[in-house]
Amino acid sequence: MSRGHRLFYPALPVVAEHAPHRAVYVGDADGRCEILAWDRAAGTARQVTDRPGGTVRAALDPAGATVWWFDDDLGGVGTWRTCDFDRPDRSVEALPSVLPARHAGIAMAADGTTAVGLSDDGGMTVFLRTGDGRVGERVHVGGYAYLVDLDPTGRLLVVGGDAAAEPAVTVFTADGARVAGIGGGPDRRVWALGFAPGVDPARLLLVVEDEGGYLPATWTAAEGVVRHGWCRFDTEITAGWFPDGQRLLVRQDRHARTLLHEVDLTARTRTVVDTPPGSVLDAAVWPDGDVAYVWTDSVTPPQLRSVRGVELPQHPGGRSDADGPDAAPADYRREEIRVPGPGGPIPALVALPADREGPRPAVFLVHGGPFQHARDAYDPLVEILVSTGCAVVRVNYRGSSGYGAVWRNDFSAGVGLTQLEDLAAVRAHLVAEGVVEDRRTALWGTSWGGYLTLLALGRQPELWRLGIAISPVADYVAAFEAATPAVRALDVLLFGGTPDEVPQRYARSSPVTYVDRVRAPVLLAVSTGDVQCPPAPVEHYARLLAERRIPHQVVRRRAGHEDFDAQSHLALMQTVLLFMQRHFDGVQDEGTPVALAMARPVG
To answer: How far is 148 from 127, CA to CA, in rounded Å?
Structure first.
């Protein structure tokens, strides 16, 4: 096919608080994600990093003078480096005495103090670098934790962890003394989002789960936690401060779309920010008060917008908006349905070829997470698969975000097994309605979606004709043992314990348990540096398939859990579609399987 489809999307620039004409962002450099420094006043952008695997993490000090970027390997282990904004070609180690570790947060104060969180198997450590370059360890937290923020004066820092733990959030002095612990719980999770700008005493923004909904809260040392119960939301939110330290920009994921709200904590008012229908993938208030956001819908590739009208800079190796519009979207029909299910109505997004009536082969694109959701957003895979004659179904099964806490937290039939119930219910409904063919349905998922794909092939072999599992979990116990503290913390939350504590739950939800029942051809893609879904258990699963003579293919990539190389993405998509042409006769052979055009990466 000759149409172009975007691989990577624009990311919001990080703007210097006291020099808002200066920013850094993740951009496209010859098909890789790299860091660029953007001077909005001069209208220029300079490439800061140039690494074979790309670079996706950067920060800019409040004065706009120093760029920080994370120099990591495929497994995410690395060190922070700094360079002058005007001389990005000269970088030095930011924390020369600190050993490489995984990124766990960075925050900066107005006086030049920078706090850096770094994690390893022993936990998370916060290091502080003062304005004169001195570096010291301040806080160490065992297990999963991350640095949230440093207050504007540099006197307090806040650390987050498991949102359901007690405490979920801990406030420390810059010297490492514990100031306060802010509690959580299984039905009252708490997330910390950051300190208000320019406010003394320091005021910390929180999101609290409460009675099935979500509301903003604030913490100060004098008052403790103040819950703003008048401002309750029925589905998940995140938020950030306006420069005045009194208003919030709240981003709400709701029923596959996004709403932006301006919340005034003093006036106790809430108003919707005018954005087009669709999804806002990220949003922030810039120091000048402008609201910038990344917007998309099902037929429009994500684009950077703002309330006042911002333009992306041109930069080396990337397309500018002047290069012309994206190709017109493919002609296909889109439907949103609700299907009766064991836990209530199941939402799903369905895309259908416009030139074909009657039952058609279907590919279920299974989203990852688990706490993510399929949304009204551009996905090149949908267009590619619809153009081959397939229906594309994206199910927001239980565990998905965007539908409230009760739906998000429902794993009542077991981890993975609950989600399979909902996938099967939507499939049965579409078959009964004559939308899809009973014997021609496939699954395609990445990460946790890849895990559900493998689990479904073994638990429901009569339903699925083919499986595509990219960076999946194939053996939950083996993956747990090899994963990072953050991933292990998520597993403990989902299963209610470790594999040693609840072994039967892990076994019941692990794809390897059901490998003898798999009948469908399987494509497995693994990445050598993946520490979230380690490749070794997947390789073992592939050997078990070979012993049982199940048609399969293993694609091995030199990447981490996320691959930020566009050529690698292109090669994988070509391989997957060729595999589908061989093993799933719902896909037409159109010659070249897919031609994907490069666009700006997202960080």
So the answer is: 13
Nearest to 191 by CA among 222, 155, 172, 219: 219
Tell which residue, 84, 166, 160, 81, has the closest CA to residue 119.
160
Report the range of poorest mean pLDDT among 346-355, 406-415, 431-440, 556-565.
556-565
Rounded (10°) angle between helices 448-459 and 417-432: 70
Residue 508, C-beta contacts closer than 8 angstroms, at least 6 positions apart: 414, 417
List, for residues 233-285, the tens digit of each pLDDT value: 999 999 999 999 999 999 999 999 999 999 999 999 999 999 999 999 999 99
CA distance 112 to 150: 11
User: Which H helix or E strand runs over 270?
Assistant: strand 269-273
Smallest Cα–Cα separation from 313: which of 19, 3, 43, 20? 43
Give pTM, 2 decimals.
0.90
At 211 the pLDDT is: 86
Q: How far is CA 598 from the centre of its chain?
A: 20
Query: 104 φ, ψ to 5°?
Result: -140, 35
pLDDT tops 70 at residue 586: no
Distance CA 319, CA 326 (A): 11
Residue 505: name the closest of 389, 426, 412 by CA.
Answer: 412
How many angstroms separate the CA atoms of 443 and 367, rounded?
A: 11
Kindly compute the dihedral angle of the four CA atoms of residues 330, 332, 336, 341, in this order, to the nearest 10 degrees: -110
Average pLDDT over residues 318-328: 39
Of residues 29 and 239, the one with the higher pLDDT is: 239
| Strands annotated E in 354-500 | 360-366, 391-395, 436-446, 466-470
Q: What is the chain's length?
A: 603
Greatest alpha-carbon pair distance for the chain in Å reads 70
**The one-letter amino acid at 303:** Q
Of 9, 40, 11, 44, whose CA–CA distance to 23 is shortest?
Answer: 40
